[in-house]
Amino acid sequence: MSLHGTIPNRDSCVYTSCYCEENVWKMCEFVRLEGNESLKELFVVFISNENRMVPLWKQKSGRGDQPVIWDYHVVLLQVTSQSDPLVFDLDSELSFPCSLQVYAAGALGSDRNINPAYHRKLRVIAADSFLSHFASDRSHMKNPDGSWKMPPPLYPPIHTADCRMNLDYFISMDPAVGWGRVFSLDQFLQRYLNNSSSSASAASSSSSSSSSAS
């Protein structure tokens, strides 16, 4: 088990390359099925922007010190009052889990010296809300001829009783749609890196202010 006994070790996690949103959903599902109270400490973080071009460093698919430019990326954040926030990123070269402070410095960096078109925004959603509302038919990973851009997970697509595809609501950084709360990179780091107790309180506030997609 991982440092806090909440998430399996990296090698034991369900993982499919280029399906980061489903990899994170599976981590959340694991915690829920274990009946672990830690689910309320977990938050799903979508990283994207209006242009769907966001740089991340220390990614396994990167080359040297060059960032990978994703259309979006998804990680899991654990926020407690007892320790610093932790990031679980199955696509990162950094440790698993990794302290948010180390992840911020190594993978996120700063928006101050990069083209505004690449500035990052982050949508933070409570894990239980993500489990309840997320749905994907994986159509975004298909070419016009119906072939797969990348092989899909072996398990069936994730659906809800009411929806088969709402991924765009999570990737969108429009605060008027979707679930959770949208931050600029600076706002996100200021909120979650202040200190562990205030971060836990802020996370709880973000959870309670979640809204439904329109």
Write the layout of secondary structure elements.
Elements: H1 20-33, E1 42-48, E2 54-56, E3 68-70, E4 73-78, E5 86-88, E6 98-99, H2 100-108, E7 121-126, H3 127-133, H4 167-171, E8 181-184, H5 185-193, H6 196-208
Helix pairs in contact: 1-3, 2-5
Descriptive account of the structure:
- The protein is of the alpha+beta class.
- The protein is 27% helix and 16% strand.
- The chain has six helices and eight strands.
- Strands 6-5-4-1-7-8 form a six-stranded antiparallel sheet, with helices on both faces. A two-stranded antiparallel ribbon has the order 2-3.
How big is the Rg? 16 Å
Q: Tell me the strand percentage band.
A: 15-25%
Question: Mean pLDDT, as a whole number?
Answer: 90
**N-to-C CA distance:** 38 Å
Query: Strand pairing plus helix content: what structural class?
Result: alpha+beta
The backbone outline, from C-alpha atoms, is: globular
Fraction of residues in H or I helices: 25-40%
Order of helices and strands, N to C?
HEEEEEEHEHHEHH
Number of strands: 8
How many helix segments?
Answer: 6
| Unreliable spans | 207-214
In the sheet with the most strands, the strands line up as 6-5-4-1-7-8
- Report the sheet with the most strands, covering strand number, pairing sense and barrel closure: 6 strands, antiparallel
